[in-house]
Write a structure and sequence with these properties.
286 residues, globular, TIM Barrel
């Protein structure tokens, strides 16, 4: 692979008000990055408590706006991924007195609003999932209902769903739920994945060992940093320069085909985006 070539970070957060915001985008660009999927930060980090569907709107608007600004700085472009962080259910139940069913209803309403952004072209995909930590059976079941709801909405508006879940190497049941809702398995993405996963498409946290495992499998995968843009945790999870640097490392190690899979083939299959066609076209749009 030679420059310029598409390099996509599949899961990054940008906080223009409290974090590095566009400065993080500049770091990504300076390192050779070209395309971003920007996932909204958890609602409580941007707007505080949410009580009704409309409370999610400023969360989504902040992300849509920063994506537009980011696209102006990229040789490719950025897209928003909007949804509800699954850990919200614990805040609602444990700290605010919601029942699991009430919390699920509010989170599903947030997913409904996010799907409207996808339907009108302002967002590319949805985000959902379930807690990655131990919860009660009632909260677990309610979280699974939210995830199933996201699959149904993704099927309705024709988009992928990024999942935040527990660490796993096998999530076939989850893609079966998606299929039952009409969402193909290749449109289900496991964010913060290792290099080996059965079921969803893995979005691999860009550490060398995980990437090498994914590259050797020869199957669809994406690369991400999960950069959280929190001034109290600079560089967490991985810094915005990581995906471009790890991409170059993969090429140097002889995994050029894996790089094409991660940055060209899989984004096209999962999201219907063309990272080659959009390269070098400022404000290229859909």
């Amino acid at each position: 692979m030679s420059d310029p070539a598409p390099i996509l970070d599949n899961h990054i957060h940008l906080d223009p008000d409290h974090g590095r915001g566009l400065d993080a985008v500049d770091d990504f660009v300076d390192a050779g990055g070209t395309h971003l999927l920007v996932v909204n930060k958890p609602s409580w980090q941007l707007v505080g408590a949410v009580d009704e569907r409309s409370d999610f709107r400023p969360v989504f608007e902040t992300t849509v706006e920063v994506v537009s600004d980011a696209t102006d700085r990229l040789r490719g472009r950025a897209w928003p991924v909007l949804g509800v962080h699954p850990a919200l259910i614990s805040q609602l139940v444990d700290e605010r007195g919601f029942t699991p069913a009430e919390a699920s209803d509010l989170m599903c309403a947030g997913i409904d609003l996010a799907s409207e952004y996808v339907a009108d072209g302002r967002a590319l995909a949805l985000k959902s999932g379930r807690p990655h930590y131990e919860v009660s059976e009632a909260v677990w079941e309610a979280s699974n209902e939210v995830m199933r709801h996201a699959f149904a909405r993704g099927a309705e508006v024709g988009c992928a769903v990024q999942l935040h879940t527990e660490s796993a190497t096998e999530l076939t049941e989850v893609v079966e739920w998606a299929a039952d809702a009409g969402l193909p398995a290749e449109r289900v993405v496991k964010h913060y994945a290792g290099g080996r996963l059965t079921g969803p498409i893995p979005s691999v946290t860009s550490q060398r060992d995980a990437l090498e495992t994914a590259a050797e499998r020869g199957e669809p995968f994406l690369m991400e940093t999960d950069f959280i843009d929190d001034p109290d945790r600079p560089g967490a999870v991985l810094g915005p320069k990581t995906v471009p640097r790890r991409t170059r490392w993969l090429v140097e190690e002889g995994y050029g085909e894996a790089v094409r899979i991660a940055h060209v083939q899989t984004p096209r299959t999962v999201y219907g985006i063309d990272t080659v066609e959009t390269l070098g076209r400022p404000n290229s749009g859909d």
